[in-house]
Amino acid sequence: MSFDRSLHLINSATTTSAGTTSTKSKPMGRRKFLTLAGAATAGVTLSTLPMGFAGPAAAQTGSRSLVCIFLRGGADSFNMFVPRDHGVAGQTHAVYAATRGRFAVPAGSLLPIFDGQFGLNPGLGGMAAIAEAGQLAVVQNVGPLGQPITKTDYLAGRSLPQSLFAHDAQQKLWQTARPTLTSSTGWAGSLAEIVAPNAPVAPSFSLNGSNRWQASTGSRYSRLSPTVPISLLHGYSSEQRTWIPTFEGVQDTLAANLSAARASSNVFDQAAADSLSQSITTTQQLQSATADNAANDVGMDDVGRNRLGMQLREVARLIKNREQLNMPRQIFLVRVGGWDTHQDQEGRFPALLSQLDGAVTSFQNAINNLGLADSVTTFTASDFGRTLTINGDGTDHGWGGNAFVMGGAVSAGRYGTFPDLTASATNPDDISDGRNNFAGRLIPTTSVSQHGATLARWMGLNDAQLDQAFPELRNFGQRDLGYLA
Questions:
Q1: CA distances from 384 to 290, 305, 442 (A)
Q2: Is 27 helix (H, G, I), strand (E, B) or coil?
Q3: Contact yes or no for 454/480 (Cβ under 8 A)
Q4: Where are the alpha helices (DSSP H) in 121-266?
Q5: Contacts 24+ apart (CB under 8 A), 234-242
Q6: What's the gap between Cα 268 and its chain centre?
Q7: Which of 82, 86, 75, 129 is CA-nearest to residue 104?
Q8: Residue 217 CA: distances (Å) to CA of 169, 268, 276
Q9: Partner of 405 at 20 to 30 A CA spacing, among 253, 254, 441, 459?
């Protein structure tokens, strides 16, 4: 793994007329140097904390790591977790099958979990085993809300989250736990500021690019690649200088430029110097902690070329080394796309489930084998759920959806309220008024704020800190969903 866009650019690259690239060493001014260095250190986000935001650090009760698996595109989670023998009106398999049509998973194919009244899609056999081991919970019908919403509220346009059903907007609302798009702070960014204030190396990592979830005005997070080893600037170490004479003296040159930038009256220079210095510190610490094969062996060779599995393998390595990294609290984001199944859902959905199930199962087995299960909690999130009704060849953008939570600290079971699945204009959980083509969009019965606050409390936040990280939480009666010990 390495910092995204890594720390490898010092000299200028030019392209010849033949299309080949040559590298030339040439002097550059301090401003140009810092601009280039800043571009090469995009893997570390740096900003300033607003006055009085975080308050005292959260209570530390042993090491804990939180892992978010974001299913980009809007996952059809009502075909992952399905009523089987549930006898509640509007929640039976017969009602589900009537609404889903040919996409419905047959009752006999479902893998029973918990009390057997619900089951998992047969493509999630590994996750069914995790449930059987008591390490899986389902948060039912969760989504962005600023306050509880009824169908009457929706039809009247009252108190609705902004830009419903739009991918980019709903990803941001999920990641900020806010009902509007004005916030630039993600709830994981707020969490990181509270649990690790002023940490020399921020314990927050994305294995799949930049995101709103880990961002805040005071939170730094590192962007890593699951496929490239961590390394410093070429020529930065004495070992590199012996075989790359072009880069001799990089460390001294860099130190001089950073010193000049810090003394500059220009805010850009100061910020670039701070960002690059933080990148070097973080890279050195990560490189040291994962330098030998034993540190990197987490027993996840079975993931092969599974893109999600490769990201989770790097997460497992950083969790294994968290004591050496001096990170009693860690926050991770991994992502995988392809879940926007407007077309060919029957062909695409099984492959998506296979990738998810294989990656999650391998990761949870690795964490169990490392003896860290009680201190690692993994959860899924997505843009939104999908319509219960089908559009002929796929499903369309919905609102509420189901989320999975896994780990040794999980109290297995169903949490939140499962919705009515009836395809009817009178269904109180369905936004349809009988006159549109998007029946089956479910109003969330649990908010992202409640879900996130439950995870954040497990990470050590108290009630006052939860209110800071989740401003809308006070609008909901249940602040903790209860699925974590």
A1: 36, 27, 10
A2: coil
A3: yes
A4: 125-132, 151-156, 167-176, 187-195, 238-241, 250-263
A5: 234/8, 234/10, 235/10, 236/7, 236/280
A6: 29
A7: 82
A8: 20, 16, 17
A9: 441
189 phi and psi angles, rounded to 5 deg: -65, -45
Q: What are the extents of the domains in the chain?
A: 1-11+35-53+231-289, 64-230+305-475
Q: What angle do CA 236, 241, 242 make, to 5 degrees?
A: 155
Confidence of residue 334 (pLDDT cuts 50, 70, 90): very high
- Helices 167-176 and 187-195, interaxial angle, to 10°? 30
Q: What is the pLDDT of residues 157-209, one digit of tens each?
A: 999 999 999 999 999 999 999 999 999 999 999 999 999 988 878 899 999 99
CA separation for the pair 346, 391 (Å, rounded): 12
Single-letter code of the amino acid located at 244 = I
List, for residues 343-358, the tens digit of each pLDDT value.
Answer: 999 999 999 999 999 9
What is the CB neighbour count within 10 angstroms for residue 346?
Answer: 12
**Crossing angle, helix 448-458 and helix 187-195, to 10 degrees?**
20
Angle between helices 30-40 and 250-263 (to 10 degrees): 110
Eight-state DSSP code of residue 295 = H
> Closest Cα to residue 355, out of 368, 377, 337?
337
Look up residue 125 and give its two tokens.
């056999």
List Cβ neighbours of 56 (8 Å cut-off, separation of 6 or more): none
Cross-strand pairs, 83? 118
The Cα–Cα gap between 85 and 119 comes to 9
CB 374 within 8 A of CB 409: yes
Q: What is the pLDDT of residues 229-239, one digit of tens each?
A: 776 665 665 55
Helix (H/G/I), strand (E/B), else coil: 326: coil
Q: How far is CA 37 from CA 30, 107, 127, 156, in A?
A: 10, 57, 43, 52
Single-letter code of the amino acid located at 224: L
Rounded CA-CA distance 123/346 in Å is 12
Nearest 5 degrees, angle CA 103-CA 336-CA 323? Answer: 135
3-state secondary structure of 405: strand
CATH match of 64-230+305-475 with 3.10.20: no
Axis-axis angle for helices 30-40, 267-289 (nearest 10):
40
Question: CA triplet 134, 138, 143: central angle to 5 degrees?
Answer: 160
Burial class (CB in 10 A: 0-12, 13-18, 19+), 392: exposed
3-state secondary structure 229-293: CCCCCCCCCHHHHCCCHHHCCHHHHHHHHHHHHHHCCCHHHHHHHHHHHHHHHHHHHHHHHCCCH
Closest Cα to residue 273, out of 263, 282, 283? Answer: 263
